[in-house]
Amino acid sequence: MATKYIFVTGGVVSGIGKGVATASLGRLLRNRGFTVAPIKLDPYINVDAGTMNPFQHGEVFVTEDGAETDLDLGHYERFMDVNCSKGSSVTAGKVYKNVIEAERRGDYLGGTVQVIPHVTNEIKALVQKVAIEQEADVVIAEIGGTVGDIESLPFLEAIRQMRTDLGYENTMYVHVTMVPTVGPWHEVKTKPTQHSVYKLREIGIAPDVLVCRCEVVMETEVIEKISLFCGVPKEAVIQSQNLDTVYEVPLMYEDLGLGDFVSKRLGLEHRPDQMEEWRKLVHTLKNPSNEVTIAVVGKYTSNGDAYKSIAEALVHAGIPNDCKVNVKWIESDTLEGELSPEYALKDIDGLVVGPGFGGRGIEGKIEAIRIARESEMPFFGICLGMQMAVIEYARNICGLAGANSEEMVQHPPYPVIHLLPEQKEVTDKGASMRLGSYPCNLVHDTLSAKLYGATRITERHRHRYEVNNDFREKLQEQGMIISGVSPDYRLVEMVEVPAHPFFVATQAHPEFKSRPNRAHPLFQGLVKAALESKQKAALK
Ligand code: GLN
Fold first, then answer.
1. Is 461 in the pocket of ligand 1 (CB under 6 A)?
2. What CA–CA distance (Å, rounded) separates 81 from 87?
3. How far is residue 341's CA from residue 244's CA, in Å, rounded to a whole number?
4. In terms of Cα–Cα distance, which of 40, 243, 1 is closest to 140?
5. For the chain, how far is it from start to end, CA to CA, in angstroms?
């Protein structure tokens, strides 16, 4: 069977959940047993998202093979339970880089290099390469930005051409729009959607499906009107309201018939939708028996998307624990001034100190870790969070006053965290960290090994600094356990404090591998410990 291509565009406004819509559609096809390869086409000039500020752009998501990508790839992985790869993220920067490199090599010798066909051909080639590499039945490609943006035009032109290249039966266009309500009676307005579709048609794309984000339930007349004006069959006008949990979106789409519509339209073999597992997990999410509150201390907490995968991993971890996980976001530098760490951590059942770069707010993080360690509050450190846990232990238990990371101060008296040897010569900032999946050996009988139920694991990484081996002995003498190391023993990958109900930290980013149907063991362990600590406190 020829690979089928679904292209998802967005209209009216940005931030209407196009990524979740794309991911949810992918789930419907995965539930029918198809191999789905998601791709994000991003019109920005950055070659990848690695150099982008999380304040502005949200989290940088890291794939198994070490690509630093847009956070939408996180939605795809979580909803579709697939692993994306470097090819799954195509930015304008990457496309132009390839085209310009080809021009310099002389590949187009004699020709004038132009947006059409050279740039559009490169976009098409990159999309089709993923289909081949991943042996996909269906490719779902989401185009970033909103229809009407100047910069997304080459991408839209490329996907328009793909219909001519590959045929009607192998391509379809899904347009995600907003249907706002206005006035005191919340009157539903279809005009912005109509205009967005006109704009798309101007480019030569007529949508096959409209996903309409709307705050209220759309009456039949509204659906009929959108169908008539936009030339989309009624059953393909899918209304999408806000739900209690994003994981319910695939269920809503399925119940509205989207899975069957898409399968039929693309001539995919009819297969039953196996939604049972998904329905069960959504049911647990919506009806939890317990509740805990976890504080997440970070540097970019004012952007709700900056720690997206951590937030989602905590939600997933609640599912096997039958527990709702509330998150209290704490901006790390507030702990150094206006908010005492003791006060901030009052009524909290567990603490996560998250990833980050640079020195702002690190003393607040270290203080929060000290409190968690001393008060036996479950603690989980992630990447920078682990480095801070090691600094805290070095300073307060090993007596190494002023211990620090070389990332934060130039010549600390005790550089317990220092640059990875392979980073010493690196000058470029893009794609130059220790990135992607690496193996790690866990020490038998440690909490880490018990949680994973294995002694050989792999996790994804994104860092330049590491624990300084000169201090390994000292830390261990004073009771810190190095529970995970790289197979060559060179790098400390995980630490824990045994005389504590749950004090675990990892140099990796386990949040990237957590899935709603497979909560990550470390997050699961943290939530379990938080719940136990809450229940114990209630008995006192
Ligand atoms: N800034 C630290 C490093 O580069 C930690 C990075 C992170 O938390 N992802 O090692």
1. no
2. 17
3. 31
4. 40
5. 64
Which pLDDT tens digit goes with each residue over 21-64? 999 999 999 999 999 999 999 999 888 887 888 777 889 999 99
Q: Report pLDDT for 423.
A: 72
The letter for the amino acid at 446 is T
The stretch 485-512 carries a mean pLDDT of 96
Q: Ligand 1 pocket test: which of 463, 491, 511 has the largest number of ligand atoms within 8 Å of its C-beta? A: 463
Q: Where among 280, 306, 337 does a domain terminate?
A: 280
**How many whole angstroms from 197 Cα to the centroid of ligand 1?**
43
Q: Do residues 404 and 451 both lie within one domain?
A: yes
Tens digits of residue pLDDT in 375-425: 999 999 999 999 999 999 999 999 999 999 999 999 999 999 999 877 777
Phi, psi (deg, nearest 5) at residue 356: 170, 170
User: In terms of Cα–Cα distance, which of 462, 470, 528, 519 is closest to 501?
Assistant: 528
Angle at 409 between CA 407 and CA 414, to 5 degrees: 95
Beta strand pairing status for 481-485 and 492-496?
antiparallel
Atom of ligand 1 nearest to the CA of 509: 9
Ligand 1 lined by 383 (C-beta under 6 Å) = yes
Residue at which a domain ends, from 280, 308, 334? 280
**Mean pLDDT, rounded, for 128-136:** 95
Total number of domains in the chain: 2
Same domain for 375 and 272?
no
Q: Do both 326 and 276 map to the same domain?
A: no
Q: Are residues 331 and 234 in the same domain?
A: no
Q: Are residues 318 and 386 in the same domain?
A: yes
| Chain centre to alpha carbon of residue 161 | 30
Q: If we measure between CA atoms, which residue out of 503, 465, 489, 264 comes closest to residue 380?
A: 503
Evaluated on CA atoms 27, 28, 29, 30, the torsion sign reads positive
Determine whether 95 is exposed, middle or buried from the number of CB atoms within 10 Å of its CB (0-12, 13-18, 19+): buried
- Which has the closest alpha carbon to 500: 539, 521, 526? 526
Query: What global pTM score does this model have?
Result: 0.94
Q: Which listed residue (316, 500, 509, 520) is catalytic? A: 509
Strand runs labelled E in 97-256: 138-143, 171-178, 181-182, 187-188, 209-213, 237-240
CA triple 325-82-54, angle to 5 deg: 55
Query: How many angstroms separate the Cα of 232 from the Cα of each of 44, 74, 210?
Result: 30, 30, 7
Q: Which residues sit opposite 188 in a β-bridge? A: 181
Q: Cα(107) to centroid of ligand 1, in Å?
A: 40
Q: Indicate whether 170 and 42 sit together in one domain.
A: yes
Are 262 and 225 contacting, i.e. CB atoms less than 8 angstroms apart?
no
Segments forming the whole domain that contains residue 95: 4-280
